[in-house]
Design brief:
Blueprint lengths: L8 H10 L34 E7 L12 H10 L1 E7 L5 H8 L5 E4 L14 H8 L7 H6 L17 H6 L10 E6 H7 L6 H14 L4 E5 L6 H6 L8 E4 L2 E4 L6 H13 L15 H7 L3 E7 L2 H11 L6 E3 L10 E3 L6 E4 L6 H12 L1 H9 L6 E3 L5 E3 L6 H7 L10 H7 L6 H11 L1 E3 L1 H4 L8 H21 L4 H18 L1 H20 L1
Helix pairs in contact: 4-13, 10-20, 13-14, 19-20, 19-21
Length: 521
Amino acid sequence: MKKTWGSLFILTLILALLAGCGGGGNAKSGSNSGGQTGQNGSASDSGSQDEIVELDLFINHSWYPVRSWTGSIAEEITKRTGVKLNVTVAADSEQLPLMIASGDLPDLIFTLREPRLENPDMSYPWNELIEKYAPDFEIDPVRLAVNTAQDGNVYTVLNSFATPEEWASNPYALGNDGNPGIAVRQDILDELGAKIETLDDFVSVLEQVKQKYPDMVPMTMDIEWIPQYFKMQFGIPPHSSWHEQDGQLKHIISHPKALEFYKFMNSLYRNGYILAENFTYSNDQIDDEYAVTGRAFAHSHTVSVAEADNAKVKNQGNNYQFTMIPSALTDEAYNLSTGTGFSGVYITKNNKNPQKSIEFIKFLASKEGLELVMFGIEGKHWEWHPDGYPVFHYDVNDAEYVNSEGLKWWYLYSDAIVEGLRGYVPGTQTTKALQEIKEITDHNPAIGMVKLQDGTDEKIIFDKIKEMVKTEEVRIYLAESEEAAEQAYQKMLQLAEDIGLSKLESWATAEYKKMQELFNQ
């Protein structure tokens, strides 16, 4: 049964969290328009000025596929805003902390929520800049509430967020590519005369592939997406660090189905269906090469993996095709959305032009900006279908084209509904997979509002457990027997307990109950 949260939580959130927002509510609430949910401010007029302002943007995601301000979308944004970005993508996860420590910051930083930047000495509060430079930039109360920092200011608004009510009221919004999926070679499946409708079916097919095609790897997995699809099949939230159990918030490693999941993953390795080296791939392209060059039967990545692989296979002149297997292979299959957003822009105190920066974000947050970034130029890249979804004039899964045009990835301020509409392409495998996942998805943003703060005991415990799990999980996956895998799992739980798991869960439960009160009133 899907969870829905009472609509009265908006008023409570405003009273409880927004009242302290610096500037006395300078960032005003606005109504939805045109089927979008972000805010209803009009596009910035700054693009009419002749002078182009160049701002330095640091993207704190080393995997980011677009690394320069090029392509028709970037050019159009510059035309509309008068802003050009000089882009630097992080080399690794240590680069931003070093920049923060040294104070050597660019104009703009696009990153996951970063508490160290939520400080008036480090970043400009958006609410102050909006009051001074863009008073008609209206952000809805819910987004302000979930993005309000401890000091009452709003330093960023994370993209990729929508309320449960917004998801429910937009049937064509299906989420985005950040959902797990597995594609298989359709020609080989046909040769075997097999169908995949259950998890047992899938394992059986992997065994047949191993026997009939000994030179082929039965399954290759993206290094960043190894457990998610299979966690989902066992009823374990694939993206969350937490799960709710009897009203308590528990760490995901203590989920009742965790041991069963780990034993299954270990069986894939012990039976030769996945390679040990897959757990140490140095980048996220190695699995792609296995798949598109014909060296792997199944490819585990995201919901768009089949169509992305098919585009690459076609570009290489090969003629086999990949097909998505069902998103739910068990009766327990389950997905949980706890998100309050993915990443957002911080306007640092080193910023050369705060006015242009907030006007630039204002344009991206407008209906016009949201659609330009996520869909493209209307009339050239897409047009509206009478039923209320975009019809694209290009293959949204053709990564080479999408990246070269600069489509999608400049979502420095975005909206999960707009992103979700981009995922609706009737007749495509990605759309079908997303529809299947939406059917098994619950929304619980109260979990996402349980936020760990840097410097606290709880954050230290959480980070230590996270690092420990990275190592211990691989030992479970690669254990030589089921018994050894179970022992490795029990060891991981004990190590977590020694670090402070019970203390962390007790704190998280108390915070969770506070957030539930806000949503349930």
